[in-house]
Design brief:
Length: 234
């Protein structure tokens, strides 16, 4: 299939759902979506409408810490290492509440999980139920900071929450996509998809292209109890 016919998507979690950026393999013809669930996206990949999707959310869950993927990603990211949080253990997916999740985590690894990690469990659970080991040839766990480090040639100096950090990320994306990002954000961005999440989804779109073309690199080699690989791709 010629590169120009390939469609891919980068995905980032957003309040109440997911920010999805779809583009061609040449990173043009960009569309921005908001979806409450990822069921349709997974079916688009399985049906061939998308050649690959790169999602910033853990796929592949262990019942011990740490995942090798998380350790290696932190090593790669240096000053941005804190953006890779410890992935919740599989046992926490069945927790009734935060206290239960912490108790389950302590019982397995001696440590509770952060409230930030706990708040992501519904999305992690959704992916765990949707994605099979066979899907992982085209649906990859990604991390936007690894994508930005690749585009920049080194981990970014500034956190994404700062003005300098946002401007650096937008500049890298503008150079990569060759698009007027201000117009794209103003005209095509759904109101439920925050700009910060769309920026991260766009970075993941560059990873999805690499997955589709067989050029991606992955960190981590663990396999979980369901047969899914625990690997972060960029």
């Amino acid at each position: 299939m010629p590169d120009g016919e390939i469609r891919v998507a980068g995905v980032d979690g957003a309040p109440g759902g997911w920010a999805i950026v779809e583009a061609s393999a040449q990173l043009d013809d960009v569309t921005i979506e908001f979806a409450e669930t990822l069921g349709d996206l997974v079916e688009r990949v399985r049906g061939g409408r998308l050649a690959a999707a790169a999602i910033d959310m853990p796929i592949g869950l262990l019942d011990h810490h740490p995942r090798r993927a998380d350790v290696l990603a932190r090593q790669r990211l240096g000053p941005r290492r804190s953006s890779v949080f410890p992935t919740p253990l599989r046992t926490t997916l069945a927790a009734d509440d935060y206290a239960d999740a912490c108790e389950r985590s302590r019982a397995r690894c001696g440590k509770a999980l952060s409230k930030q990690a706990y708040n992501l469990i519904p999305k992690i659970r959704e992916l765990d139920e949707l994605v099979t080991p066979d899907d992982q040839t085209a649906i990859a766990e990604a991390h936007p900071e690894l994508a930005f480090a690749r585009l920049n040639g080194a981990p970014l100096e500034h956190p994404k929450a700062t003005l300098d950090g946002r401007e650096q990320r937008l500049a890298l994306l503008a150079a990569t996509f060759g698009a007027d990002l201000e117009e794209l954000m103003a005209t095509d961005r759904p109101t439920r998809a925050p700009i910060t999440d769309v920026i991260d989804a766009m970075a993941n779109t560059t990873t999805a292209v690499r997955v589709a073309l067989g050029r991606a690199e992955s960190l981590g080699d663990d396999v979980d109890a369901t047969g899914k690989r625990c690997a972060i791709t960029f």
